[in-house]
Specification:
Chain lengths: 330, 390, 292
């Protein structure tokens, strides 16, 4: 566990990056985006919807990876800003306008605001304490969504949301392929933003805090503010993910704020490889695939498969799907 | 490590691709009804807390189907079963997949109300009929009703309302305490009861809504009930919560002094077996009981028990009737719109629960029975006392 | 004074429920407090114990069958614990998240296998022999079994305390967590002690399932309920294993019973609000914070 703050450009790293694995790692994200973009031409609508769900969930997960993998704050409460974003987008959709970018902004704002409130309390704690307080606060938000029926529709949620439009005068996006393109564009942008943040000086500060907060403080950093900021950023991203989810699902219910969503997101980060950003995106796709897409056809044994996947991953991929020596950089 | 990573990435991509392979194909959907076969989707919970209801629904549907040679509407049925899961996040995509991927001509089932509500729009747009065999949300045949959504089970408010006048007559100017879990179904069932109860002159002593799914200890609520001076309690619970509530109602001594009334879900199916002697004497209102004394019901119960070695429940009957109405409505129909038209023409349906018909809003207009839990040699049953005036 | 009399049974039930929570949470707390391992399979192990009780307790049950069930649960728990400790060994030093992933995977698999074997119905269990029934207590009716839970909970607390603080097993396990190389340098093979404490924790989980079955029953989803409650108790109670868990359990027990009785409209918020307050008020004394 080093305390270096900048990615060491040693010859070892250069060898890794220059090899075919490094090339693969650079090409793969672009290739994935392209593959998903052309998918609607050759797959059925349910598959397009599944890919859309994966992209939306990936935004939540990549934000969580920034929080957990890069900044070292493991959170079991990301379902709260995710759900807040989903509800905000749904409320805008039912009461204001079906314009997707508007719902997106509402979702991002809701997620960010909630994270700002929660983070103010939570970021004071560390490790398991932080994990538990995020769990508790998210459960409180979940209970609130269930009870505040006038706003959230209670346990039935909000249904029958209109099809999204890109522009106020534009056509509704009825075909699943178009919705996928919209969600893909937004999620790719979000992942790119997270990568940029991670590679910036701020990202290096976060990694320093993750590796040795005490030393960072000794160096004169006020660690509360970077942690708080990254918590809010993760909240904004989760809110964006929530609004994208709703754009595809056209309903929202308290189930979106469930502890299960937080747990699946965290597991996706661990499966993908903490801190690698791209790995958790794959992890998100895998988790959505197993939990939501394959489960209905396993005659009730969906959880068995999910558990089995977790066990296999933890043994066979100790550093996650995208793990390896490059974990500490990028 | 590097090699493993590259391999792993490729392997994962391959797995994902293979998993998606069956999904390749065109996006054009036509519900598949040919002249001699029809594809039907059965959307039921096969995992999670609602799974027992899913089992009952599956059994009821299969009982009718198999008794008619695997045919409905004179067509061979290809049945696709999908797991609704525990909530709309898994249920709605599963229901959508039935239309878009399995391309069913009609779907049956749905236990969870939030899932059912989320499926209204997709099924309406795809013009595929959805026969709800359980979900009780009032809105499904109320504010959110649609041409393609039909229900053979019940509406929450109706079941609650059935007991209103009866309980008012029983408490003789005393007050009644209301309690149900804090979710939409709980509020709607109590709401329906309260409206009918107060219209009949009843007075409410108080109402509590324990959190849904996370309450295992009802002592605080039972203590509040005792302190309120209520003459009786009216409740709605189902599943594990029904078992906990009924058992604790006896354990904490309320049963002898404060009679318990409820809608039938409190004492239906395996829940009754779990409650055991604690349930004796509880009077409930529901649109079915295995003890209904009609030829249709006797035949149904006998066939069900012979095949499944367990008594049928109100959930099985709803699915049985779903198969029945489809059998009659699909004769000669080639599209979803024609099936819907057929459903609209149905008239009276002879069911194990009695005779019922669809209302204008596609909800059953049916009789509700007053039942009492009794031990009739062979186990606990819901004996029928009389019909509750609707 | 009048208030106290009115609410006497509620307060008593808060104590009983609290001690039930203690029996549920102590296994989780032990493994976390002594071994610094987050065992998310705890709920599934409790569920296994509960279904064991369902298998044993058909109809009226004698006290001997009950004790036999406890013994069987201990055997089951010990086996599961040894197995889990073995599975966790390759993950030594990989941090809480990897442990969480593994134990969550095991939990999902175990819970699903249980529901595949036993079905999805709700099962209930009657308390054994003379512990069933509800006598009159100060004018109120109160089930005997809950009074028994109070007694058993306290006995359990004593037993765990003695094992952890007063036996060689406990001492060596605690030493292993603090400085494993040193213990090994003393010539002690640390693995059996870690496995031993782990097994003790999982035994407590399964036994908790048997003890709790007459109150909570057995059904799919109970494992998640128990796990969350266990985590809440452990968090509120703090890192001092036995005393902390006992205090946390009694607090949460009262919150869930007396709290709900006084503030029923906020019932869904009470437990987690308590957890938040507990975490914010005493962060220094909370869980052992794994160094990065």
């Amino acid at each position: 566990m080093t305390a270096t703050i900048s990615p060491a450009r040693t010859s070892a790293h250069a060898a890794v990056r220059g090899g075919w694995a490094g090339r693969l790692r650079r090409v793969l994200p672009v290739a994935t985006v392209l593959a998903v973009a052309v998918a609607p031409f050759g797959v059925t609508p349910p598959v397009s919807s599944a890919l859309t769900r994966m992209c939306a969930f990936a935004v939540l997960v990549v934000g969580l990876d920034l929080l957990t993998g890069v900044a070292g704050l493991p959170s079991l409460g990301q379902a709260a800003p995710f759900g807040a974003g989903a509800y905000a987008a749904a409320i805008v959709a039912t009461r204001l306008s079906p314009v997707a970018p508007l719902q997106l902004v509402a979702g991002a704002a809701a997620g960010g605001l909630l994270a700002a409130v929660i983070g103010w309390l939570a970021v004071r704690l560390r490790g398991i304490n932080f994990l538990m307080i995020t769990l508790a606060l998210a459960e409180l938000v979940h209970a609130l969504a269930n009870q505040w029926s006038s706003l959230t529709g209670g346990s039935n949620g909000l249904v029958g949301l209109p099809f999204i439009r890109i522009a106020p005068a534009g056509p509704p996006l009825v075909a699943t392929g178009y919705v996928l393109w919209y969600v893909l564009a937004v999620s790719a942008a979000c992942v790119a933003v997270v990568v940029v943040v991670s590679r910036s000086a701020f990202g290096r500060t976060l990694r320093g805090i993750r590796d040795n907060e005490g030393r960072m403080r000794a160096l004169g950093y006020a660690t509360f503010w970077p942690k708080y900021l990254v918590f809010c950023i993760a909240g904004v991203l989760a809110g964006v993910g929530g609004s994208l989810w709703v754009a595809q699902a056209q309903f929202v219910s308290p189930g979106s704020l469930n502890f299960e969503v937080s747990a699946l997101a965290l597991m996706a980060v661990v499966i993908g490889g903490r801190g690698t950003l791209y790995g958790p995106v794959l992890g998100a796709a895998l988790v959505v695939l197993v939990r939501y897409e394959l489960s209905p056809y396993l005659a009730g044994r969906g959880m068995l498969l999910l558990g089995g996947v977790f066990i296999l991953v933890v043994y066979l991929l100790p550093k996650g799907l995208a793990g390896g020596r490059a974990r500490r950089s990028a | 490590m590097r090699r493993i990573n590259g391999r792993v990435l490729r392997a994962v991509s391959a797995i994902v691709a293979i998993a998606l392979l069956p999904a390749c194909g065109s996006s054009f959907n036509t519900g598949t009804i040919t002249s001699d076969s029809v594809k039907i989707g059965l959307l039921i919970p096969q995992s999670g807390v609602y799974a027992p209801l899913g089992t009952d629904i599956s059994r009821g549907f299969h009982l009718y189907l198999d008794a008619h040679g695997g045919q409905l509407g004179h067509r061979r049925v290809a049945l696709v079963t999908a797991d609704e899961g525990a909530g709309p996040d898994s249920g709605v995509p599963a229901g959508q997949k039935l239309i878009q991927q399995s391309q069913v001509a009609v779907a049956v089932g749905v236990v969870n109300s939030a899932t059912a509500l989320g499926l209204i729009q997709p099924y309406n747009e795809a013009k595929v009929p959805l026969i709800i065999a359980n979900a009780g949300a009032n809105a499904l045949t109320g504010a959110k009703r649609s041409a393609y959504v039909w229900r053979t089970s019940f509406a929450n408010g109706d079941v609650g309302a059935s007991m209103g006048a009866y309980v008012a007559s029983r408490v003789d100017f005393g007050q009644v305490y209301l309690i149900a879990p804090d979710y939409a179904a709980g509020h709607e069932q109590i709401g329906g009861f309260r409206e009918a109860f107060e219209a009949a002159g009843g007075k409410v002593a108080g109402a509590d809504y324990p959190p849904f799914g996370t309450t295992s200890n009802y002592q605080p609520y039972l203590a509040r009930i005792q302190r309120s001076g209520a003459r009786a309690v009216f409740c709605f619970f189902s599943g594990a919560e029904a078992v906990s509530f009924v058992k604790q109602y006896t354990e904490f001594g309320l049963a002898p002094t404060i009679p318990l009334y409820a809608t039938g879900y409190l004492t239906e199916g395996s829940v009754l077996r779990g409650e055991g002697a604690a349930a004796l004497g509880i009077q409930t209102g529901l649109h079915y009981s295995t003890e209904l004394d009609t030829a249709t019901n006797h035949a149904f119960v006998a066939a069900y028990v012979a095949r499944y070695h367990a008594p049928p429940t109100v959930f099985s009957v709803a699915a049985y009737d779903a198969a029945q109405v489809l059998d009659r409505a699909m004769a000669g129909a080639r599209t979803g719109a024609q099936i819907v038209a057929g459903l609209g023409r149905l008239g009276d349906i002879d069911s194990p629960r009695g005779t019922w018909h669809f209302s204008d809003t596609h909800n059953p207009v049916q009789r509700y029975y007053l039942r009492e839990v009794r031990d009739q040699g062979g186990g606990l049953v819901n004996a029928i006392l009389r019909t509750l005036s609707s | 004074m009048q208030w106290l009399t009115d609410n006497f049974i509620t307060i008593l039930d808060g104590v009983a429920f609290g001690l039930l929570l203690f029996t549920i949470a102590i296994g989780l707390s032990l493994i976390l407090g002594v071994l610094d391992v987050l065992n998310l399979a705890h709920g599934a192990l409790y569920l296994a114990g509960a279904y064991l009780a369902v298998q044993f307790f058909t109809g009226r049950v004698s006290i001997w069958v009950f004790l036999l069930a406890l013994v069987m649960a201990s055997v089951l728990g010990a086996g599961a614990g040894a197995g889990l400790a073995f599975m966790m060994r390759p993950l030594a030093g990989r941090g809480h998240l990897d442990q969480a992933l593994l134990s969550l995977g095991v939990a999902l698999v175990l819970a699903d296998l249980i529901s595949a074997v036993f079905g999805n119905d709700v099962h209930t269990v009657s308390p054994p022999g003379f512990l069933s029934g509800s006598p009159q207590l100060a004018g109120f009716t109160y089930p005997v079994y809950r009074l028994a839970v109070i007694l058993v909970g306290l006995v359990l607390a004593l037993v765990v305390y003695l094992v952890v603080e007063r036996t060689r097993l406990g001492a060596l396990a605690r030493a292993t967590v603090i400085d494993a190389p040193m213990v090994r340098a003393m010539g002690v093979d640390t693995r059996p002690f870690v496995a031993g404490i782990f097994a003790f924790g999982t035994v407590l989980a399964c036994v908790g399932g048997v003890l709790g079955a007459p109150i909570l029953g057995a059904y799919p989803g109970l494992d998640q309920y128990v796990l969350i409650l266990g985590l809440v108790v452990v968090v509120v109670g703090g890192v001092d294993t036995v005393r902390g868990t006992l205090v946390g359990a009694l607090v949460i027990g009262q919150v869930e019973v007396l709290g709900v009785s006084l503030l029923p409209r906020y019932a869904s918020f009470l437990v987690f609000a308590t957890m938040v307050v507990g975490l914010l008020l005493r962060p220094g004394n909370r869980m052992r914070v794994a160094a990065s």
